[in-house]
Amino acid sequence: MEATLNALDKTDDVTGKGKFLMSRALDEKRSIVPETWSETRPQLMERMEKKALEYADLLLKNQQLKALNQPSSRDYKSVLHFMENDGGQLFEEEMEFIYEKEDLVTLRPGREYAWLDGMIERAIQIFRCRIIMFFFSPKETRDKAKDKAINYYSRNRISACVTMIITIMILVLLMVPIWLLYKLSVNGTIATSPQTIGVILVPTLIFSAVLSAFTKAKRHEILAASAGYCAVLVVFLGNVNQVGSTADRH
User: Are 200 and 233 in contact (CB under 8 A)?
Assistant: First the structure.
């Protein structure tokens, strides 16, 4: 279409009809069209506009597909094993798409703790006993499996377990450093001692690692949160030392 448009423009330029190239209104109103033209310039421009809109729509759909989450390694391996072992009704050449992991997307919404969910499910399978099955696989969930080799677990209970683990980690990261700083202050350790600096530095590093592993926070968000966490410990240490100094004076 671009070559055709260039040919139309060149024909008008050579035949001395350049005014049609300078005004679209005149070009649309022209009554005599060269016989060699299969369509007028406005008709060609309209067809090009439709093609451009179709291409733009295709780009937007491609962008929406790119925005979808990629399947986790655990989900991908689950589907892969099913197709290789149980999906025998598909021909081998029709299964080749499953090996293109980079091109696959999932409709399942991504979760920040998906890998922790997988660890809990694997732990349930390893340490499987009646008590664990009672908590994570209630009767209505077990009844869904017709095959005894297939185990279903309650997603809500696993999510509750994950939430409890995250809550405990947050409490530990907050209370343990505060308790250690308090003990050091009670023992008369000054704020600039290596032990005190280590108590502030190590939990801050662990806090940053936990943010990276358990959340989808960006780098600047992790930096800001770590700075805030460190500031809380420093402020607590300063207050404890101030109170301790005032008590010693009295």
Answer: yes
78 pLDDT above the threshold of 60: yes
pLDDT at residue number 57: 92
pTM of the model: 0.56
Which long-range CB contacts under 8 A does 192-200 form with residues at least 24 apart? 196/237, 199/233, 200/230, 200/233, 200/234, 200/237
- φ and ψ at 243, to 5 degrees? -65, -40
Evaluated on CA atoms 114, 116, 117, 122, the torsion sign reads positive
8 A C-beta contact, residue 215 and residue 112: yes
Burial class (CB in 10 A: 0-12, 13-18, 19+), 83: middle
Reduced to 3 states (helix: H, G, I; strand: E, B; else coil), residue 88 is coil
List, in order, residues 6 or more apart from 95 with CB less than 8 Å away.
83, 84, 87
CA 121 to the chain's CA centroid? 22
Is the separation of the CB atoms in 139 and 153 below 8 Å? no
